[in-house]
Amino acid sequence: MNSILPPILVVDDERNMRQTLMDLLTADDYKVRTAESAEQALQHLAQGEHLMVITDARLGGMNGYELLGRINNLWPNLPTLMITAYATPKLAVEAIKAGAMDYLPKPFGPEELLHAVARCAERHRLLKENASLRARASEIHTIDHIIGECPKVRELRQLIQTVAKTDARVLVLGESGTGKELVAGALHSLSARHKKPYIRINCAAIPETLLESELFGHEKGAFTGALKQKHGRVEEADGGTIFLDEIADMSRPLQAKLLRFLEDGSFTRVGGTQELRVNVRLIAATNRDIVDAIRREEFREDLFHRLNVVQFRLPPLRERGNDIALLAEHFRQHFATTMNRRVKSISRPTLNKLLTHAWPGNVRELRNVIERALILETNNEVQPPSLPDFQLESRLQHSETPKPAGDSLDEILANFERELISNTLERNQHNVTRAAEQLKLSRHALRYRMQRLNLADDSTDEATAPAAPASS
Ligand SMILES: Nc1ncnc2c1ncn2[C@@H]1O[C@H](COP(=O)(O)OP(=O)(O)OP(=O)(O)O)[C@@H](O)[C@H]1O
Ligand SMILES: [Mg+2]
């Protein structure tokens, strides 16, 4: 049972004492590491997680009290047990003042030691439980929260299951609102690290100057306002996962520091010199065109390759077909429950409007639209008047790709086809043969369509088909 816990660090400058403590603890199935000085102890501690520290008060070099002071600064949650020479109240008070969780006067019996250690182990378990609860309190992500049955989303769920179990870095790409954060959360929840912290940082939301200290921490006095030492979020994430959202917005100098961190997990706090090391899995996301950011030299290519071990590309909602209906229904149920509204379904005409909208804001936009509709709807079915004016919104948000005009589907399709054919003809200097090739049609079929669509024939090639264009 104890063997699944991280090791206990025993610090004593006397070899015999180290050995005795080690024998006692290993007999009780604890893992043990030893250090003969405070300096060596700090090095061990920086390298990995420990259950607790047992230190003698008197050490060569830095003494036990100073060591406890350092430990409390660096790892405030790490339990410590101090072994003092005699059971005098004064020494006990000093040990506790220096930050020891408990103290044990010499000489002590094996049970006394094991009892004190068991108390520390229990505290460790509670702390861990708390931390993971805290990490999961806001949202519990599972694969079931990713709604959608289109092939790309089915594939995505499959890939998440596979990749989650590895420690591979993942880069999640996709337009705003496509579910990148949801995917990152699912990757953590399904990983072996799910009981450890899941730390999210939005690189765009934090001012550049503060982001470094947020990520890697700072030493007291590192900059104006750094009144005391602060642990970085990477330290908080030790053993777990860190999700860096909007990674393409990170400044170049910080990208360099992140690159080093990704190489071996090492970093230094802002204003510090000590090299620290943690074990975290990194997931990054961006809705920007990262290749373009690299081309503009805003994003380091070497960092991109480090992050891009596994890449997830989330499809925009407009390419997900009937998932729009599934998601709309999912959000209707969700908001009907949370708002306590008796809106039991979405009417067919409403659904048709939802299915033809381009969704520039993707799933987030759909979620907002349904939330708004449930607030406004007075019937027990969502009706079209409860939807926003999509035409207006589409024009605002996607002005570069106006939706072809038309009332009926036939009219919209015809307008679209007309636009596409005339653009292709134009690109090919009105050479019908070449345009037909590009559209994977026979020349005859293209001419037929042009005629049907009232498209003028300025063709440069000799047509064998004598289709005369109708006047427009
Ligand atoms: N497949 C899905 N199933 C259910 N809900 C989804 C799905 N995809 C996205 N959502 C929901 O849509 C909203 C936006 O998702 P999320 O925050 O993950 O988007 P994002 O890609 O991180 O966007 P941004 O780039 O703007 O940060 C959230 O409320 C999320 O729960
Ligand atoms: Mg996001």
Short description:
This protein is of the alpha/beta class. Helix content is 46%, strand content 12%.
What does this molecule look like?
This protein folds into four domains: 2-135, Response regulator (Rossmann fold); 143-313, P-loop containing nucleotide triphosphate hydrolases (Rossmann fold, 3-Layer(aba) Sandwich), CATH 3.40.50; 317-397, Helicase, Ruva Protein, domain 3, CATH 1.10.8; 405-472, Homeodomain-like (Arc Repressor Mutant, subunit A), CATH 1.10.10. Helix content is 46%, strand content 12%. The protein is built from 19 helices and 16 strands. It has helices at 15-27, 38-47, 64-74, 89-97, 110-137, 151-164, 180-189, 208-216, 233-236, 252-264, 290-295, 301-307, 323-338, 348-356, 362-376, 390-397, 409-427, 432-438, 443-452, and strands spanning 8-11, 32-35, 52-56, 80-84, 102-105, 170-173, 198-202, 217-218, 230-231, 241-245, 266-267, 276-277, 281-286, 310-313, 345-346, 381-382. The strands form five sheets. It has a five-stranded parallel beta sheet with strand order 2-1-3-4-5, with helices on both faces. The protein has a five-stranded parallel beta sheet with strand order 7-10-13-6-14. Helix 1 (15-27) links the parallel strand 1 (8-11) and strand 2 (32-35). The longest helix is centred in the N-terminal third of the chain and has 28 residues, at 110-137. The radius of gyration is 32 Å and the shape is elongated. Mean pLDDT is 86; it is low at 462-472. Magnesium ion binds next to helix 7. Adenosine-5'-triphosphate (ATP) is lined by residues 145-148, 174, 176-182, 287, 363-364, 367.
